[in-house]
Amino acid sequence: MTEGFNARSRVPRNSNGSSPVFHLSVDSRSQLLRWYNGNPFDTNEDTLKRALEVLHWCGENSGIFESDPEIRRVELETGAQTLGISVSRLTELMARESIIHQRPPNCRLIAFEGIDEVATVQQMDLLRADLVRRQVKVISLPSSDEQGFFGREVARLQNGVKAHEAAVDPKSMALWNALDRRACVLDVTRHAAGGTVVLLNRYTLSNAVHESARCNENLSDWVFEMEHTHLGIPAPDIYFVLDVPAVEREEAEQSAHTGFRPEQKDTATLVRQRYRELARRLPQIEMIECIGDGREAKSPDAVHREILEHLRRHKLLE
Fold first, then answer.
1. Mean residue pLDDT across the chain
2. Is 107-313 a domain of CATH 3.40.50.2000?
3. C-alpha angle with apex 231: 278 to 140, nearest 5 degrees?
């Protein structure tokens, strides 16, 4: 994570004098944002510029914790004021600066999304079996902790779609979903052994897409910030969205090997549209087309091979 950084000027610049924000690779941007606010899906260029400025200050003042306590206090207060953040936040970022230069050692998160949950579970199982054969430690997590406090509340709220939609606004429902997810995933990811792969079924992206479709507004940026920045829910390294056009799903499910099951067509169409919009904007989202050129459903093995190819391309699988 050193590309484009000028270690001696407070605002990092490239050799031509321009900001390096626009020259960072996808991986570098993701690492920088994971460090700065936990949200690699933040596409605001001002956030990236601020993150680079704070990172540069941390690098220039890396020996601050070896200073006299009073001098350290004054320097941190001055730096925080200059950067426009709190002293506690600046101190935390300095302590976590090392993650900028290397991938966190504990685990990698791979999330599966799609309109048809049977297909996502099927592909999770195939990938899990493949990783086990490669002697990789794998943990699979469900979309909800149905035995936990928040999971039980989410299930109660979702009993009866019409009553649920009338009683709970999309942002409130997104928050309940996020709290359920946080309880489900945090302990696992914090204590996972090095090299562990965590497979996730319908993660934060699902929350962003479904609640946006329910109110016909774009809540995705709000959901990503709420979950990854403010609730500290770890962001996945990659999303796989198993895509089946709503008008073709009935044909696809006639093939016994697909495992697809239909939802309401109007809702499914809106959800699919949201998935595709976000995939065009965010390089960490890979759309996997489950219908071939001949308009027939691809076999699970064919879809699995595509997933493996994307994992290799993103350097998440050796």
1. 83
2. no
3. 70
